[in-house]
UniProtKB/TrEMBL annotation:
Residues 3-296 form the NmrA-like domain. Keywords: NADP. GO terms for cellular component: nucleus. Belongs to the NmrA-type oxidoreductase family. It comes from Rhypophila decipiens. InterPro entries: NAD(P)-bd_dom_sf, NmrA-like, NmrA-like_oxidored. This is NmrA-like domain-containing protein. It holds the Pfam family NmrA. The keyword Manganese does not apply.
Length: 322
């Protein structure tokens, strides 16, 4: 019997790459599934590498609806993610997301559409945080998918990427200087953290439990952690670097200045500021518990990456860490 095809958008990127990887390697999946990996450039190394590993690599552009329909044709499941940060244009991201939904809805073989979503922050905050465009745009696509009668969708909600921390949010401002983590929020704010390499574990659980997760949100996070705990675990992993490590809460305007000093446009600095205030004021997942998602993962829950493991293995610190 022919195997089911999962079409993976963003297959050369962080989330989609992890989904492609697990469907190419996990025996519980390879028995029934093959991978169709979508990219704009089938000639680049990451695309060729996917082909070498057994994926069918196809070209499509999220700005070209006909190419999306062609890429989805004949597949049973679709994993769809868009990259807001490439254009920083929410309207464009919504158009891309709706084109993905429309293509899946028009393809009779598609039994499951998995959308990499985020919450509507404007709504969650009653308008107090109106500028977190990359969340609201993904939520608009989720809402569109929910509006289509009988459209079989599940919404994967990725947590805060751990890859934002090493060398980026936790960094030395001068050589051999103290390691500092800088955010505009209290050190007790809960942050659901996520290693993008774990995306596949969540999507595996979504696909294997299709009937019970249709219409649901699945929360992609290992656990909630606070900035204070992030620093104390950093100190455990790197006792030498940890001696001077500290959390530095800065006022909102100072945080924006930091981002703008690094070349970010004003609207994006405001967007990221509000994105962080979300953790403290309303909750990144609106206070949702991770228990139901973790129960769905079964034994795979133990494989979720911890902050300590991510810190130990990260290549992004820029110096040798001790
Ligand atoms: N940073 C965080 O903490 C965080 C947390 C939650 C969610 N997110 C969201 O994660 C999303 C990015 O996901 P990611 O990290 O997996 O992305 P990524 O690693 O930057 O990769 C982007 C992927 O999207 C594909 N892509 C982009 N534009 C495309 C287009 N026009 N047509 C076809 N494919 C296109 C790229 O494919 P090719 O280049 O090969 O064509 C690539 O595979 C963003 O929208 C962001 O808002 C981020």
């Amino acid at each position: 019997m022919d195997k089911n095809i999962i079409t993976v958008f963003g297959a050369t990127g962080a989330q989609g790459g992890s989904v492609a990887d697990i469907f190419l390697t996990d025996p519980a999946l390879t028995i029934d599934w093959t991978v169709r990996a979508v990219t704009r450039d089938i000639q680049k190394d990451s695309s060729k590498n996917l082909a070498k590993r057994g994926a069918e690599v196809v070209a499509a552009d999220l700005n070209d609806a006909a190419s999306i329909r062609k890429a989805i044709d004949g597949s049973t499941a679709v994993f769809a993610v868009t990259n807001y940060w490439e254009s920083m244009d929410a309207a464009k991201e919504i158009t891309q997301g709706k084109a993905l939904v429309d293509a899946a809805a028009a393809t009779p073989t598609v039994k499951h559409f998995i959308w990499s979503s985020l919450l509507d922050v404007k709504k969650l905050s009653n308008g107090a945080l109106p500028n977190v465009y990359h969340f609201d745009s993904k939520a608009a696509v989720e809402s569109y998918a929910r509006s289509l009668p009988d459209f079989p969708a599940t919404f994967f909600m990725p947590g805060f990427y751990l890859s934002n921390l090493p060398g980026q949010t936790i960094r030395q401002f001068e050589p051999n200087g103290p390691w500092t983590m800088t955010f505009p929020i209290k050190d007790s704010a809960p942050m659901p953290y996520f290693d993008t390499n774990d995306t596949g574990l969540f999507v595996k659980a979504i696909v294997l439990n299709r009937d019970s997760v249709l219409g649901k949100r699945i929360y992609g996070a290992t656990e909630y952690i606070t900035p204070k705990e992030i620093i104390s675990q950093f100190q455990e992993v790197f006792p030498e670097a940890g001696k001077t490590a500290a959390y530095n809460q800065v006022p909102p305007e100072a945080y924006k200045s930091l981002l703008k000093g690094a070349g970010m446009p004003d609207f994006a600095a405001q967007e990221l500021l509000e994105n962080f205030l979300l953790f403290e004021q309303f909750g990144y997942f609106g206070g949702a518990s991770l228990d139901e998602t973790h129960a769905l993962l079964g034994e795979d829950k133990e494989k979720l990456t911890t902050w300590k493991k991510h810190a130990r293995e990260s290549k992004k610190w820029g110096v040798e860490m001790k």
